[in-house]
Design a protein that fits this description.
Length: 178
């Protein structure tokens, strides 16, 4: 991989072709974890139970330390637009429900956060309103043709601005140490 430019150029193209033709199934790729966007199923429900239990554990640890916890929820690219939906659903065969497009995963986590009293920043609105003409919010380069979860520098800037605005509206209390 490090000694061959042919490898670097061909593997992303071949993987993309394999996903588009159905040789590989992106829904079964644990690295992308699209289960939150799929229809209810036993696997889907177990994934939600496990995820929320892990968040409970994190909140309990943070509370025990007396620190502030703010959960930031990033959307996946498929949730941002009809064009992204078509690319992933039609081009790559990813299972995406209308509920996911309507922000169902974000609503589910927000309900958990409200029940736990957890501060939360949901970036779905900010990402949907970002001007696509200014570039992708998600990582794209010669080796990565599609990455629905890792942010580009522009995506990081949009996220940072939204988080900063949220924290400025409710700044954390500063403890004085004597």
């Amino acid at each position: 991989m490090r000694a061959s430019h042919l490898y670097t150029a061909s593997v992303p193209l071949l993987k993309g072709l394999a996903y588009r033709t159905g040789v590989l199934d992106l829904n079964d790729n644990p690295g992308f974890a699209f289960v939150a966007l799929d229809a209810d199923s036993p696997v889907h429900n177990i994934a939600w139970q496990t995820s929320l239990a892990l968040l409970d554990d994190i909140v309990d640890e943070v509370d025990a330390c007396g620190a502030r916890f703010t959960l930031v929820m990033f959307p996946v690219e498929t949730q941002l637009s009809e064009a992204a939906l078509r690319m992933y659903r039609d081009g790559l065969g990813v299972h995406i429900t209308e509920s996911a497009m309507a922000g169902g995963p974000q609503q589910r986590v927000q309900a958990w956060a409200d029940a736990r009293g957890v501060d939360m920043v949901d970036l779905l609105g900010e990402f949907r309103s970002a001007d696509p003409a200014k570039g992708s919010l998600y990582l794209r380069n010669d080796a990565v043709a599609i990455d629905p979860v890792h942010l580009s520098p522009r995506g990081n800037a949009v996220a940072a601005a939204a988080i900063a605005e949220h924290l400025a509206a409710d700044p954390p209390a500063m403890a004085l140490v004597e």
